[in-house]
Amino acid sequence: MKAFVLTMLLLAVQTCVQAQQAGKPADKSSGKSARSTEQELIALNQELIDALARGDRAAVDRIYAPEFVRTTVQGGLLTKAQALDSIKAPADGVKITYESKEIQVFDYGNAAVLAYLSIRHTENKGEKSDFLYRVTDTFIKRDGRWLKVASAGTPVVAKP
């Protein structure tokens, strides 16, 4: 009986250690920490949302991988070409800004996931509105730089 209890205890400890390590970076060979990846991706995400707000297709094109796919809030899929075609500069008198909050970065070495609350602020001739949605973005590291390969967003019905 003691051997059984001891075996179960060791199994529980091993499971806890594996669970704790699951959230750590998978690839430490590069010498970069998870914090560095987090900072890189948060900065890249800010660069991307700033480009989207001003309708800068060239900047977005550099960040989206060739195989990029977006799942729309209606459940459709957009390819990179379709997503780029939908990017337009705001109309005269309209100001759009994006804000990311509650950002979580899950680092898996040469892949990472960002989950965050995105807020699109729109000001149109003095009228202000906000659109909130939860976003999950997937990035891969290719040739030393991060590229977004997938994105999905879900509208937030009530403010959190």
Describe this structure in words.
There is one protein chain. This protein has helices at residues 2-22, 34-54, 57-63, 80-85, and strands at 64-71, 77-79, 94-107, 111-124, 127-142, 145-155. By secondary structure, the protein is of the alpha+beta class. It has a single domain, classed as Roll (Nuclear Transport Factor 2, Chain: A). It has a six-stranded mixed β-sheet with strand order 2-1-6-5-4-3. Strand 4 and strand 5 (127-142) form a beta hairpin. The longest helix is centred in the N-terminal third of the chain and has 21 residues, at 2-22. The termini are far apart. Residues 1-31 have low confidence and may be disordered.
